[in-house]
Each structure stands twice: as structure tokens, then as C-alpha cells.
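Entry type: protein chain
Record version: 2
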Amino acid sequence: MRGLGLRGVAGLLAVLLAVSLAGCTDSGGEGEGELTVGLLLPSRAVPRWEKSDKPLIEKRVRELCPECTVVYANAENDAASQRQQMNSMITRGVSVLMLDVVDPKALRSSVRAAHREGIPVVAYDRLAEGPISGFVSFDGAQVGRLQGQALLEGMGARAGGGVVMMNGDPSSPNAAWYEGGARSVLQDEVRILKSYNTLGWRTENAHDHMSAAISDLGPSRVDGVLAANDSIAAGVISALKSARVSPLPPVTGQDADLDAVQRIVEGEQYMTVYKPFRLETEAAAAMAVALARGNDIDALVTTKVDSPTTENVPAVLLTPTAVTRETIGRTLVRDGVYTIDQICTPKLRPACDRAGLTR
């Protein structure tokens, strides 16, 4: 699998523009002349799903297809609930499903049921199992490599020391993808003292694991923490501060949550991985609308991937970017993800000035 570089992004955006001009004329979904897009997101524990992905997907679908209706459900990180939600949408007769799967194995039967009913499934962000029609995500191995490289940089003179790995939820295929990328960088460079799986990607679970690691190892032996995303990083940093670890070791993250960006400005979190959600949502929306119309998606895809059940799934894999305090301005602020005023609260104004985040 390979990511989508700058040239590929430009080409993809050109295709997306062409798709957006095509209108929506085919009939389908629940009524004559209507198309219905079923959107299934995994949880609210990670802020991005509700704050970024959902509104961006809904907006882009409306732009591509004004007659389309988006039907939405959030599984609250429960595979049984997501299976019920998906089966309900299949019964309802949606035109296409966009599935960010909680547990690929648990949802495999529902993907097969959709296929039997002639409803294409676009796996969004996480690779679902079963006969899916397309997949859109960021290159997860590169996410992990960026985290590993940044952690080594942040450790500086302590590189080669002891690291705690705080991985994601093992039911998510992305968790192993990120971990594999990180380990490919960290192996032979550090001593991995502890490695935990964080159920539900939940902050409180990460806090408990980090507290246990500190209790077992002692605070002075933790030279760095590989945290799989920003929610996990929040729990890690909370546990380190509760144990009065000072200075804080470098801690990685992912998703560029606002509170994580503010921790980076303040010096509590070392980095995050920025994944431009607009590119991901636009690629997935274009794929979903094309499939709902009964069109092929060859012009929209950039690569193919294999799932445990399906080979050569048409896919778009986008390229993530590492963000540290020095690069917030030329990444997140430049791209309009956050304004300086959103990041720089009065409490953080001195730290923002030192980071060059000025109006």
C-alpha cells in the first residue's frame, strides 16, 4: 500500500471537482429520483468523528449530489450497535454505505448482507472486511513511522532509553497498522519497556495503563511514550503529571485535536499527526456518490489494498504530516484547521509568542 503524494493529491482534487460538477440525476435509495447515503461512524470518544468527519462528509455529499440524503448513526464504540444500525440501513434500502467500522470481524456479516442487496460499501478510515467496494484512509504505517521518528527526535540525548507504547484499540485494524509503523522505526533504537492496548481509545484507560507503568517501572525510567492518538496522549500526560514526573518525557499523538495542539504549545505533548480530514472526507464522499449512481470509481482511486477477506480493494491512501510546536503555524493554521485565537487562550499567550504563533 502506498500513500498519496502532492502530485496525487492535485490529481485527486481535479477529479473531485469534475465529479462535483456532474450533478445527481440517477434514481435509487428510498424513492424515485432519490439517493440515500448511509454514514456509520464508530464513536464519540475521539473528537474528530463528530466535530470534523460527520459535518465534512454531509457537506460534501450535498455539494456533489443536492438530491442525496445522508442518514447517520454513531455506534458509541459498540460493534453490536453498529451491526444493528447497519442492518437497519440495509433494510431501509440506502443507496450506498460509508462504514467506519468498530470491529471488522463483527461487521463482516453485515457487509455481506449489503452486498447481497446490491448496496455498495465504502470502508472509511478503517479497512472493513467482506466484499467492500472501496476504501479511503490515511497511510497508517506512515502515521506510525512519523510518531516513531518524532519520538526519537524528542528524546534527544535520551534516545536509546526506555519507551512505553500506548497503542490503540485492538479491535480496530488501524491500531496494528500504526503500531507496526512505529515499531519499524523504534526497533533497535530504544528499549520498549511496556506495551498496552487501549480499549475504546479512551483517555481514562490510557491514564490507568500509564499509572500502572509508572508504578511498576518508576518515573525516572520512562524516557518517552508512543501514544497512538491524542485522546490516549491526554490520559498519558495526566498520569505523568499526577505522578509528578518532571520534566515530562516526549509524548506522541494523532488527529491534531485542539486540546492536543494546545498541549504541544505548552510543552506537555511533543507532537501530533495531522491528517487533513477534508481530503479524506471529499475522497470518500466522491466515491460513495459515484457508487450510489452506479458508476465505476476507477478515476477516483490511487491504489489497491488487500483485506483479510478481499484482494485488490480500490483505495485512496492519503499522506499524513507530523506537527510539532515549530510547525503548527505552517500546517494547522495555514490550512484553516484552527485560528491562532482558537489555539492561543489568554493562559497560553506567552507560550504561543515563544512558538511564533502571533496574529
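Comment: The CA atoms of residues 247 and 268 lie 9 Å apart.
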